[in-house]
Amino acid sequence: MFKQMLKPGLIAGIIGGVVSILVSVLLILALLLPGQAGITLYCLATPIGLLLSLGIGLLAAFLAQRQSLEKLTANKAAVAGIIAGVISSIIGVIAVPLTQQMPNWLGLQDKMIEVQLTPSRMMGLSGEQLEMARTQIIAMQKSGAANTTMLAGMAIGLACGLATGVALGAGGGALGALIFKPSLRRKLVCTNCQAAFELGGNAFIEVKEAGQPDVVDYCNWDDLASDAAKQQRAVITDVVKAKGQGRQWQCGMCKTAQAY
Ligand SMILES: [Zn+2]
Q: Could you write out the DSSP letters of every residue in the chain?
């Protein structure tokens, strides 16, 4: 089960990690906007990050479902979501030095102080108290204490980030299992009689001995015993993944053999 979920989790995690970095860079660039707008946008980083983590889990579930003919269970999809959450968090950690330094490169130190003052502003501190807080932050930065505080803040942030990333990834994955449906179906249309077979839908494959074409015919999946249905799904998954390479199939209606 873990092995099966590894690939979709990895892909979703890498995509999610890269998107997260892009979003943080964009949010920092938003600080270049004049006035309060950029600061407000920057302060949305946390809710945006939470939504992203959930999205990464959803993406993992989507990718996991796409490779399976069977409806994914929530706990299976959650595993893919957890893997995606861990991978994207690790990628995010690697980018932290970059996103931490970017405001300095862009000359946004003053704006960053404004960002740090935003909570106090929201709590309704008076102008005088805000000035005091500002002086304090500047003094802390000068004494180098800010670096220590910042490092401690980063460590806490990373731990929390990993925990939320994993939790939301798992939640997104489980949610995705409810939303996404199996789509690994393959349509085959006979070149001779135009009979349309939907593998996994209204048709199944009967594998013959080596060298002989597989027989594709209509079947009622509801009539298949659960063991037989499971085996059939495995066969179809094989054929769909291999794209029928080097194999032929025979139409159950007119018996014409043709390439997949
Ligand atoms: Zn045919």
A: -HHHHHHHHHHHHHHHHHHHHHHHHHHHHHTTSSTHHHHHHHHTHHHHHHHHHHHHHHHHHHHHHHT-SSPPPHHHHHHHHHHHHHHHHHHHHHHHHHHHHHHHHTT-HHHHHHHHHHHHHHTT--HHHHHHHHHHHHHHHHHTHHHHHHHHHHHHHHHHHHHHHHHHHHHHHHHHHHH------EEEE-TTT--EEEETTTEEEE--STTSPEEEEE--GGGS-HHHHHHHHHHHHHHHHHTTTT-EEEETTT--EEE-
Average pLDDT over residues 19-26: 90
Q: How far is the CA of 113 from the centre of ligand 1 (A)?
A: 73
- pTM for the model stands at 0.67
Calculate how far, in angstroms, residue 197's C-alpha sits from the geometric centre of ligand 1.
10
Give the Å distance between the CA of 201 and the centre of ligand 1.
18
